[in-house]
From TrEMBL:
Domain Gcp-like: 36-131
InterPro entries: ATPase_NBD, Gcp-like_dom, T6A_TsaB
Residue runs in coiled coils: none
Protein name: Gcp-like domain-containing protein
Annotated stretches, region: Disordered: 203-222
GO cellular component: cytosol
Species, as recorded: Corynebacterium vitaeruminis DSM 20294
Length: 222
């Protein structure tokens, strides 16, 4: 079974091919760090990766896509592309929490955070790989310190903003890579509709209505 895995929940563009069978193995992956061009690069990157492995889109049996939390535009691109591929091929598309994928493989008590921009992070807490709190969005300085963590995963640029109580833990940067995305997806289950985890309103807002000028007369169209 060949699985196409996609994540656009962060500034990075992550695309991979995973073979699932008696053993699960990575066929190939592409990670474009801080590309911020998901819309322009996702489809050509996917097709290029398939071509590199001498495969075609028609060879894909399942699609797994990260549903965030993440910014509105990035998530929309990844999820819409995954849904379009799935519809065209007639194959299942499985949505997973991107933070769950990033947390996969982290042992003990773990806190996983990703850059939410606006000086904030998306975060969730895990015990033995199971999410027990979150996801939510806060400033890095407001991340909970009541629990003693074994490991904290956060975007490297934000490490200096961690509360002092979290710096005693092992600090890593775990990403929702293809093998991890597939690991947290239930490929045996019939997937439901893709539901994005935005956690906050999109940056683009409908402009407020402007008051009508008193110089404009009322006109009745009878």
């Amino acid at each position: 079974m060949l699985v196409l895995a996609i994540d656009t929940s962060t500034a990075d563009l992550i695309v991979g091919l995973v073979r699932v069978g008696a053993a699960t193995e990575l066929v190939g992956e592409t990670v474009l760090a801080d590309c911020r061009q998901h819309n322009e690069l996702l489809t050509p990157t996917t097709l290029s990766l398939l071509a590199d492995e001498k495969l075609k889109l028609a060879d894909v049996d399942h699609i797994v896509v990260g549903c965030g939390p993440g910014p509105f535009t990035g998530l929309r691109v990844g999820m819409a592309t995954a849904a379009a591929f799935g519809d065209a091929l007639g194959i299942p598309v499985h949505g997973v929490c991107s933070l769950d994928a990033a947390a996969h493989g982290l042992e003990g008590s773990a806190l996983v955070a990703s850059d939410a921009r606006r000086k904030e992070v998306y975060w969730a807490r895990y015990e033995k790989g199971e999410r027990v709190e979150g996801p939510d969005v806060v400033r890095p300085e407001q991340l909970p310190t009541e629990v003693g963590y074994d490991v904290v995963s956060i975007t490297p640029a934000l490490v200096d903003r961690l509360p002092e109580g979290l710096r005693a833990a092992e600090v890593v940067h775990s990403q929702p890579l293809p093998l991890k995305l597939v690991a947290v997806a239930d490929l045996e289950e019939t997937p439901g509709p893709l539901v994005p985890l935005y956690l906050r309103r999109p940056d683009a807002k409908e402009p407020a209505a402007k008051p009508r000028s008193a110089a404009i007369p009322d006109v009745k169209l009878d």
